Structures are given as C-alpha cells and as structure tokens.
Amino acid sequence: MADDAAIRQVSELQSKGPDILAEVKRHPVELRRYNQTVAYLVSPEAHRHALELEDAAERALWQLAIQRGLKDLAEGRVTVWDEASAARLRAQFPGR
After folding, report:
1. What are the angstrom distances between the C-alpha of 73 and each of 17, 86, 89?
2. How far apart are alpha carbons 49 and 45 in whole angstroms?
3. 71 Rama class: left (phi>0) / alpha (psi -120 to 50) / beta
4. Which neighbouring-strand residues pair with 29?
C-alpha cells in the first residue's frame, strides 16, 4: 500500500482537509508527522475490500487447519488435548 499512496503531512489536514479527502477517493494517502508515517487514509471501498481479503485469508487458514486435522485423524495421529493445548489454539485463533 505504501508504494502507491500519496504522502501528506499531518499539518496539512487543517488547511487542505477537503482536498485530501477528495484525493482519498482516487488512491490511499499516507499521513506523516515529523517524517514518520502515522496513518493511512483509504476510501470506504478500499477498506471494505481489505476486510474482505482478510476474512477470505482467515477462512482459508481455517480450512487448511481442518483438512490437516482430518488427515491426521484418518491416519491415526490423534493427540489427547489438555488445557494448555486448548489455550494455545485459542491464542492462535482469537475471537472464535
């Protein structure tokens, strides 16, 4: 994302806010303060697309984990779960 983002300074927001927001409709805008990137402004469509990609990637990882688990089960590689194993899995997949 950083390669195709326009770069603006945070100090420009007050004087050029409307222009910067109009620019966000065309491409991401990287906001910097003292030459450090502090934020990216993206259009709602770009944000929604990024969330959809993230969701698709998460579903693909779940599917891969399930397929591996089913293969292990079919091949007799079964592990008895203890609370520590369950905690590691919860940490790996938070919010589920």
Report:
1. 57, 17, 17
2. 6
3. alpha
4. 6, 41
- CB count within 10 Å of CB 90 equals 11
Tokens 């589920």 found at: 96
The pair of structure tokens assigned to 40 is 């990216």
The two tokens of residue 94 are 């938070």
Mean pLDDT (10-residue bins), the chain, 96 residues: 73 88 93 92 95 96 93 87 84 80
Which residue in 65, 53, 54, 57 sits closest to 89, CA to CA?
Answer: 65
Residue 38 to residues 9, 32, 42, 54, 57, Cα–Cα distance (Å): 10, 5, 14, 22, 26
Q: Where are the alpha helices (DSSP H) in the chain?
A: 12-24, 44-74, 83-92
Number of residues assigned to the chain: 96
